[in-house]
Amino acid sequence: MSVRPPPEHSCLAGGGEAGERLRAIDWSGTSLGPLGGWPLSLQSAVRIVLGSAFPMMLHWGPDLVTFYNDAYAPSLGRKHPGNLGRPAREWWSEMWDQLTPIFDQVLAGKPYLVEDARYTPDRDGTPRDAFFTHCHSPLWDDEGRVAGIFLVVTETTGRVLAERDLTRLNANLEEQVAAVQASETRLRESEQRLDALIRSSSEVRFSTSADWSELHQLAGGGFIPDTAAANANWLEEYIPAEDRVAVRAEIARAIRTKSDYSLEHRVNRVDGSVGWAFSRAVPLLDPAGAVTGWLGAASDVTDRRRAEAALQALNATLAEQVQQRTQERNGLWEVSRDLFMVTDGNGVILSINPAWTAVLGWEGHEFIGRTTEWLEHPDDQVRTREQVAHLVEGRATLAFENRFRAKDGAYVHLSWTAVPSDGLLYCSARDVTETARQAGLLLHAEDALRQSQKMEAVGQLTGGVAHDFNNLLTVIKSSTDLLKRPDLAEERRTRYIAAISDTVDRAAKLTGQLLAFARRQALRPEVFDAAVSVRAIADMVGTLTGARISVRQQLSNEPCFINADPSQFDTALVNMAVNARDAMEGEGELTISVQPSEGMPAVRAHAAVAGAFVKVSIQDTGSGIAPDKLGRIFEPFFTTKEVGQGTGLGLSQVYGFAKQSGGEIIVESEVGTGTTFTLYLPRAVASRARIRPEEDVPVTDGGGACVLVVEDNRDVGTFVTQTLGELGYRTHWVLSAKAGLDALARDPEAHEVVFSDVVMPGMNGVELGREIGRLYPHLPVVLTSGYSHVLSEEAHHGFELLQKPYSVEALSRVLSRAVRRRR
Q1: Has this prediction a pTM greater than 0.70?
Q2: Which of 82, 213, 328, 343 has the highest CB neighbour count under 10 A?
């Protein structure tokens, strides 16, 4: 019986926030069931995830229920933590089409590795592009089947977007430089036009009084209002208020120094707008040197000033952008942990970033001017040269891995992306050594886990077999020792012989149950109606369950033919009935139902199966099965009964019979209410029902018929020939199939039946029987075996089979039938 581990030993122990939230989930309401019933493989995988500081995730079961650790949580955005323990399809719905091919490949047993893969997860309310390097590995359950997916992941969105931004920055920079050049060209053209205007006297010419109190416009260019008379209010009319102080200051300076007036200022234009004018005036002096007036000219420089302002604004913005992008590019180049490299068309290195020294240990100058051949692992050089050739031909490399030698002699695993452009090769590499190592460790851990699980199962199985067989051998040994005692009463001798015979039958039943569980039982399938068989053994079931248990039958009115071993089918029904009887403690109601079914539901990580089936159900009103034990009830030697009350092989036989017959066994149980076992078997078509052979035919004399005995074991061969002699048969014993064929070739008519073992060196019994059927089609062949993988894999071998150990009566019956058919 399994015992729920204490919290500190639970697979959900630790794990930070993720572990705390996983522990808070009521797992009994999920498809995984209660924590105590989880398979060891799932528990081990969960421990690895929660105990890792590297981002990890796993999906398990048909619903792909999700587990991940705190290191993975930041990449989920708003999806964390609400999606812990939920099926993957529910919270990756926006990108399920992208994930389905990956999951299908991994669930088929193949790992999946991809770098910088683009997905569109919804992490903040809007699906956005994100990039991930991840490795998916299949996870096997305790039965060796793929039941889940293990994911080791690193988000690379920042690096990928940074590389894209750098590319766009370079393109924008080229565009902006072109715009500056165009603006400078336009500025030069504007200055040329301005100069032409000045030279063509298009500016406004004016004169003023000595103190500039009055202004008279002599000739106009038309950009300021004309005035024919002296204007004492020219300053207020022509000059905007914000420039009047500057104009007055320049006038005062010119008067004081008797030098030229020169000023560029705003001006009220004739169209009502505010423009710019460049005004220049020279003083008029009398003979005494006193200023008598001023002559000047004003040019409209509005266009130039606007162009200059626009150019200054553009230059300021462009300089800021160039500085920012340059800093970003240099920062990315300098601090990136990825290895950046630029080479010429022959692969000679022109420039590298500092990451090369950080990762490989060599100084930067040791790389420049050389190819990378001196760094490459010898086993990778051919593939690397092929990739370089592809780049030279103009084809990009998006995902390529090789190994470079570091300065300390170790080799570093690198994953490359490279593109050719303008005769140069731009390359980026990432150190994936740790990822490769982690993947190797994970595969090693999975192998170790599977081996541990196999050894545990083998230990449990061999321990159970040894315990039960030692008990049986104890009875046989004690009985034989007592039979050796002198003067033993006949009554006791009979009792001890009967004990030996019964014990041998129990040992045969035990091995049969073990072979049935392992799906190695040599079945003898026939097409028969399951409802008829249930009706035939109903009385026996009633006897087994006792008078206080009511046995009800619900049998289909239409035929329910199946192709199975009738004996094993009956045994499976009896085993389920006995199990139900014990669960009801001898009192309750047992219902046996046989009905056709269109399909078989999903069970134990297997998907539902469409098709024609027959379902045979046994329902009891017993105590039910606890959820933590429900997953173990088909294990060999697992039992909840007290010592000596059961072997724990009954339900194992049912499980093995169902699987070997192409069907399934499904259990539904509720504690305190009862349990229903439903056996699903493929439906068959038959023209007639099977007739059960008579098992109580008396032993008959062989009448001197000659039996060719083929048996390689001398002890068994001696016993068989002696037994056949006492039954009235003549025998010819050979030790191999080849010797048997030689004997038949010498005298084909000397033998009336061949009695052969199946497991023999060289040609086995089935192959011998087929060769005899080809050469001597009227000679019957009877096979015997305790176990043979040949028989378990090929139930329809076409020969009558006598299972070891067999009784003298069974041997007599099978040979009598064979001789009658021959004669």
Answers
A1: no
A2: 343
